[in-house]
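Contributing new complexes? Match this layout with methylmalonyl-coenzyme A.
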Amino acid sequence: MTNPLYDALIAPQIENDAPLLYLQGGGDVTGRDFAAQAHRFAHALKGLGLKPGDRLAVQIAKSPEALALYAAALAGGFVFLPLNTAYTPDEVAYFVENSGAALLVGDPARADTLAPVAERLKAQFQTLDGAGGGSLTDLAANEPASFDATPRGRDDLAAILYTSGTTGRSKGAMLSQSNLLENAQVLAQEWRFTDQDVLLHALPIFHTHGLFVASNVSLLTGGRMIFLPGFKAAEVVELLPRATAMMGVPTFYTRLLDDPAFDRDLTRHMRLFTSGSAPLLAETHRQFEDRTGHRILERYGMTETNMSTSNPYEGERRAGTVGFPLPGVELRITDPDTGEELPQGTPGMIEVRGHNVFQGYWQMPEKTAEELRENGFFITGDIGVIDADGYVSIVGRQKDLIISGGYNIYPKEIELLLDEQPGVLESAVIGTPHPDFGEGVVAVIVPEPGHAPTPEALEAAIAPQLARFKQPKRYVLTDSLPRNTMGKVQKNLLREEYKNSFTG
Ligand code: MCA
Ligand code: AMP
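Output block (do not edit by hand):
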């Protein structure tokens, strides 16, 4: 028996003496060194008692070692569970508890708050910092540089990524070996990735986009990555001349366009820019083409489905659309109320089925049943329409979700915290146009009679529990919330009323 993902992504690096990762400020990591580090980590994890199928939760800065830890999880058959570095210890605790993680790896700078979380939840705790140091690296230091990969089947879980629910807590999307491998193979083919590519990698590696779309595709095709800890426009401008491809969220592209140094010359030898995770404005698409001559290739995906659609590599990349279903993916538009398929040209619920669709939510069979039909179609919560040429456009969302700078923010989670605060009668959290993040979070607060809670007090109260990027960037007080006859808050009216919160 083999280990399909390890065999395809990591094993080819064992004999690779060429650079795999170019690092900021010079220096690089060869494929051989990367594989050796992954193998040493895999031994260390086994030494800690982790068994195949155990969940390995990590909340660590992006670094070559962080990627090697992902590779180690693949090698050992551990289920990789990456977490946003912005999450507070309270947020991390939920993921560790819900997944029953055997080990939490966190930044040493946060050990004083994360170690007690792990201890309370009976998980082990180790550290790894952004420079690659920490207790896990120390443990691994004297381990062998080779490792016999644990056999895995195509349906075995490779990763669990948490995604928030419109109601209730986050759900762990279970992704199998074949979900990840087949999607990477399709993307590599569709986007023409080869071992000649140098991918400028500035995305975080705790989400689908940076880990499975960017890193997996590059590893699969034997290319190299300029591996940056995060996105800084000036740095990207400096490094672009060494790259052939870049993947980004729309905020990357608007920030690049804001930089006067970003021009046609800098991107002359680039062959591909892709965008996803949030809607790319048709206006940004056009400005980008005017400035560089490149048409950004927009694609659409979800944590539960990896990538489902893409604009064509050859052929028209149509602004404002997410292109066609990928090979091996079926996409249909249905009536959100009845589930009946709708005629072409009619907007409705996007449902997808194929190799890319996840295995269900971790230990939440009823949630899985609500969103994954017995016939294999996954109900995305996105409203879309297919035009006469077959291009899919996303025209809205049925789920109450804000996407800010490519991060998903669920209003319910914030409203529940705000509603608990003294002086708050009720609240509604909405997303309104934001020049940098696409959408920005606005909290509309109805105070209790005689109270006027201040933004400062509200912010201070929710900060310990909520990652910074989820916290409202504006608070407004109002007398009452608009409701329909069913008593449901009409957020569309609020979005209209406060639409100039960040752009006015
Ligand atoms: C940072 N801040 C944010 C965000 N990022 N606020 C709202 N939304 C954000 N996305 C806050 C910081 O906490 C800080 O708060 C202030 O904004 C300014 O921070 P700044 O230094 O400008 O931020 P940054 O470090 O430059 O980050 C912006 C970013 C980053 C580069 C756009 O958010 C990012 O890398 N986004 C990519 C997300 C991504 O990979 N999504 C893929 C999900 P203060 O100053 O007040 O303290 S996967 C997915 O969605 C599906 C599957 C798909 O299709 O890909
Ligand atoms: P996540 O739950 O983080 O995986 O986010 C997935 C959601 O991001 C999708 O359900 C869409 O609402 C949104 N999304 C991803 N790509 C695009 C895109 N190209 N255009 C519009 N929305 C997108």
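Reviewers usually confirm one structural detail per submission. For this one: The mean pLDDT is 97.
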